[in-house]
Amino acid sequence: MRAVLDTRPYMLYETVGMLVKYVNRISMLEVRDAMLRLYRNYVDEAWRRRLECLQDIIQEVCKDVNREAPEIQYFFGRREPGLGRDATTIARVMTIPFQEWRDHTLEGEAAVLKESWRRMGERGFHLAGGLPGLTFLPLPPGAKQEGLFQQVYRLNFSGDFAMEVVHVFENYAATMDRLTELIVPYSRKLEQKLNEHSWLMESLGAYWSQQFQTMPPEAFLKGINEDQPISEAKESQVSLCLMDAVEFHSETGEAVLHDDRNLFVFGSSLVAECAHKMYGENLDEICAAFRVLSDQTKLSLLMRLSMGRSYCQQLAEENRSNTGNMSRSLAALTRHGFLKQEQEQFRTYYTTDLDGIDQFFEEVRDLFQRRKDS
Questions:
Q1: Do 201 and 226 touch, CB atoms closer than 8 A?
Q2: At what angle do helices 296-305 and 283-294 cross, to 10 degrees?
Q3: Strand 2-6 to strand 235-241: parallel, antiparallel, or no bridges (unpaired)?
Q4: Is 0.70 surpassed by the pTM of this model?
Q5: Are 305 and 316 within 8 A, CB to CB?
Q6: Do 134 and 97 form a contact (C-beta atoms < 8 A)?
Q7: Are 26 and 259 in contact (CB under 8 A)?
Q8: Where does 89-240 have alpha helices with state H?
Q9: 13-27, 125-139, 238-252, 279-293: lowest mean pLDDT where?
Q10: pLDDT, tens only, 99-121
Q11: CA Rg, the chain, in Å?
């Protein structure tokens, strides 16, 4: 599979993401503080500077935006799709579900999305819920294409939101033209700012380029949704989004419009979560295992069982301990893979698991090696 890391900004998605944040008063500094509470040990100074710089850019570029203007509210005001669903915006509903990321210019990508909607109408699709409200899936073999109205209302959106979604997609090309005309001035200013602060994308691209040497994007997707199949596509494209800081978008080659291409889009703040997945997901387990090994009684027990197997009562008698304490020590050593069990009639025999111990210290070594490589 050919992997491509695309480190140029896609201006349609960046502009939409910026305006969603500004209109709804979502601060990158709040994102920074929330992520710090979760991943304080897995972020560096460049990560903090990036979010702070993005907040300054949003404030500068959007200073003339009237948050209450009808067109701004129509596309960027938050909507409640219905009970149990995350709030979204019409602009996101029109852009994110297609997951194209093919043209870096605002007008170019808008044209790609309009063509994609036309192609989906020809090819057929099944509509499901998703992160921005909608997900377009391939039409099952032999299934008939249902009308847009029936599919939208089957998603149990609130009545007002469902009507807006139907209206938008029934008039998609014209509505996309409205959106594009509205945001072009802000997109131009944003593009200029991103060029002035080229380190934002360059440092983010350098980070992911290094991380993918030890953690491919497919592994990140699998860590989020273990049930999602990942197709063997000819190409794997990784794109980056500064403004959608904490989001991760993906489409595999099995999607409606992604023949033989897996697409992964990482938000600028996900470096913290990725670092946590790479370095931190096993730290609690490793610390607990070392606490077991640092206990002299348990370590002596482990050494005793390396000379020959035994069972709980016999070990308790040998150590002048009660069976309850001995049982807990054996359970702790077994839980971390240091002992293996053999059941014979009514007794459980224990012996030191040298392969398990080797594996544990190999995982510890790999942990440090990944940290060194990053």
A1: no
A2: 80
A3: parallel
A4: yes
A5: no
A6: yes
A7: no
A8: 90-95, 106-123, 148-154, 159-170, 172-196, 199-211, 217-224
A9: 279-293
A10: 789 999 999 999 999 999 998 88
A11: 27
